[in-house]
Amino acid sequence: MATVVETSVIKVMKERSSVRKYQKGISIPQSTLHQILEAAATAPSAWNLQHWKFVTIQNQENKERLLPIAYHQQQVVDASAVVIVLGDTKANENAENVYGESVRAGFMAEEVKNSIVGDIDSHYKNAEHAGIHDAIRNASFAAMQLMLAAKAHGIDSGPMGGYDAEALRKELNIPDRYIPVLMLTLGYAEQPAYPTTRFPVDQVVVRERF
């Protein structure tokens, strides 16, 4: 049975911070990691195409192989797990399956499905770099949701953009259709993250127009 995590979403958002130093040698239970990834996969996505793929790395030797790829940032070795968030540049190819299921479940008429699938194909064919832009944007939704889900389970995280994407692709044998969007470390903080300040809301909000 899934663990019930009754924590205020706002509280989790405020408590989450990026961790760089983790307690070593502590594993995340597979059932907990599964629940975190399951929650991450409920993220919104354009046309519900679910542009994400997660590569989970918990084996210590495999984490150590990531060290040079991540420019020797020690947290990839010390963390309990590393999750590589990939974006699917050909997520439009998922449309038939996604909407076919809706038709079979009685949620949607066949003609509506065909219209939506046609719109998706048109977007991917006619909008320059649509596949790449959509992959990054939508996989990022899932990455943020993953970090929040982890914190709700008492697990810290750290997003990393500093890594050699091509070396990572080669190491993990990532198919061409997927692009690395983010490397996430998960684990239990050895020390609190550095305190940070944030701009006041009035400084980041523009009402109506510039």
Automatic annotation (TrEMBL):
- MF terms per GO, please? oxidoreductase activity
Q: Which domain of life is it from?
A: Bacteria
Q: Which InterPro entries match?
A: Nitroreductase (IPR029479), Nitroreductase-like (IPR000415)
Gene3D superfamilies from the UniProt entry: NADH Oxidase
The residue ranges of the Nitroreductase domain are 14-188
Family note:
Belongs to the nitroreductase family.
- Its recorded name reads NAD(P)H nitroreductase
Please name the taxonomic classification of the source: Bacteria, Bacillati, Bacillota, Bacilli, Bacillales
